[in-house]
Amino acid sequence: MTNSINELQNDATAIFLIGTNTTENHPVIGYKIKSNVRKNGAKLIVADPRRIDLAEMADVYMQFRPGTDVALINGMMNVIISEGLLDKDFIENRTEGFAEVAKVLEKYTPEYVEPITGVPAEDIRKAARIYASAERGSICYAMGLTQHSTGTDNVKSVCNLALLTGNLGKPGTGVNPLRGQNNVQGACDMGALPVSYPAYQQVTNPEVREKFEKAWGVKLSPNNGVTLTAAINKAHHGELKGIFVFGENPMVSDPDLQHVEEALDNLELLIVQDIFLTETAQRADVVFPGVTFAEKEGTFSNTERRVQRVRQAITPRGDARPDWQILCELSNRLGYPMNYSSPEEIFNEMRTVTPSYAGITYERLEGKGLHWPCPTEEHPGTPILHKEKFNRGLGLFHAIEFKEPAELPDEEYPLILSTGRSLFHYHTGTMTRRAEALDTHQPDNEIQVNPVTADKLSVADGETVRVVTRRGSIELKARVTDILEENVIFTFFHFSEAAANRLTNAAALDPVAGIPEYKVCAARIEKI
User: Fold this and answer.
1) Which of 472, 486, 82, 58 is closest to 256 using CA atoms?
2) Which residue pairs, CB below 8 angstroms and at least 24 apart, start in 324-327?
3) Beta bridge partner(s), residue 489
């Protein structure tokens, strides 16, 4: 997030949610948004293919066709420019590339965008006016925006929208991705990406590489690594012989699970390190038992970039060990010495190579933690990014044309299938489905179907049906609901016994980030 969570409750005068079912996937943040709308009169704009909970209290709800995010946002920006609602001073003094964007946006009138997205032109105008006219406008998004073959374009588009209106660098504004789990941000910060070292320092940069070679005492590859999806493909083709899966469960979370299963079986060695024997761990040659958050020391960095201490509350059970101890012992046995005495010692080494964390110490984290970047021990942390300037100096507009999703409905597969998360579970259900109270609320998967579609197929609410795509099929109960448009169906991806990712498309990847298109594929429903 460029800004902090509490600003969504106290400072934002307009909030634009796109691709985030906030009250179900981020309930605390969802509560804060509701509080701001109810108590302070903040305006709320919701754009989502499903009529989610927050749509009911929105000033404008735009139910758009899955995969048409760029067209919708371009339509809003067309209105803002044509009606003179843009922040000319901000654009002139703090950005570049606006002229190219303005030229592309000329054709994206609300009337042009309406048949693409399914959103009435007047609703696009109303949403644009509310956001652009707000004193402080905030954008929030999640994986509904990113998990597309055009995910990078989608994110660039919301950045364009914020730049166009000057909604960056001030309280209550910003472009705010909502992370899915407690330390996703921290994992990325620490280099758990195939293209960067800690603090997003590029693997291909010779100066960066030299710095880490000196710090670690080894020669490092000048080449980028591969994403998980690409690694699975390489394993399937026999180009990759071994995979170490650390706190991940690709046998439920990755697209086209038959392909994943074949790829993992094709490996010479599969190692899994996790807190439970997941579906992936059950296929492993070696399983290292890690510990839960309550059994270890360290730090987590949350969605607002706040670094916080984690303290051990209970003794690790059985033979389980903290992750750092397992990794250190494995490294020692492989010939690279890692002889740390504590997580704090590791953290202090990390600070020396991670500029954005350089000023953070365990002592300074007492209390409420610190937001990075925090470059020195005197620095107070940075709750709001881009106050005076952007990292590159001027904020860069990107001229983005709308592209259709990779797989569209046809005669054989006439429906659009989208996937997501439930209030009661997250990710592959490794933890939540073992929590009795949560699993009682939603013990099984379901496919949400519009009443008109259900009537055409003679499918009753609660009836078990088969959902089929070009990758495979699953059987699960139909839930007939009007929160979806007629040609769209939706299911959850937490349930291995009716795994949504048996259906999703592993071949459709974002060309920049390599993210699979989980949110759109062509499907059909069959009666059983």
Assistant:
1) 472
2) 324/298, 326/273, 326/288, 326/290
3) 417, 449
Nearest to 496 by CA among 333, 339, 282, 184: 282
Q: For the segment 273-316, what is each residue's pLDDT rounded down to a tens digit?
A: 999 999 999 999 999 999 999 999 999 999 999 999 999 999 99
DSSP 169-190: SSTT-SEEE--SSTTHHHHHHT
Q: Is 168 left (phi over 0), alpha (psi -120 to 50) or beta?
A: beta
Distances from the Cα of 79 to the Cαs of 260, 405, 472, in angstroms? Answer: 44, 24, 42
| Amino acid letter, residue 485 | E
Token output for 108: 């994206």
CA dist 425 and 506 (Å) reads 23
Query: Using H for helix, E for strand and C for coil, what is the string for 19-83?
Result: CCCHHHHCHHHHHHHHHHHHHHCCEEEEECCECCHHHHHCCEEECCCCCCHHHHHHHHHHHHHHC
CA distances from 482 to 17, 49, 520 (A): 20, 12, 19
Average pLDDT over residues 125-138: 98
| DSSP code per residue over 215-231 | HHTS---SS----HHHH
Q: The tokens of 268 are what?
A: 């010479």
| C-beta of residue 450 within 8 angstroms of C-beta of residue 418 | no
Of residues 31, 29, 40, 32, the one with CA closest to residue 1: 29
Give this prediction's pTM: 0.95
Which residue carries 């996703």 as its tokens? 184
Domains and CATH numbers, the chain: 7-178 (3.40.228.10), 184-371 (3.40.50.740), 415-527 (2.40.40.20)
DSSP 406: S
Residue recorded with tokens 């980028």: 224
pLDDT of amino acid 31: 97
The Cα–Cα gap between 35 and 42 comes to 9
Radius of gyration of the chain measured on its C-alpha atoms = 24
Strand partners, 439: none
Helix axes 121-133, 110-117, angle to 10 degrees: 120
The residue to which tokens 């990779």 are assigned:
406
Mean pLDDT, residues 9-14 taken together: 98
Classified as helix, coil or strand, 427 is coil
Which residues 6+ apart lie within 8 Å of 352 measured at CB?
215, 358
**Alpha helix locations (H) across 391-441?**
436-441
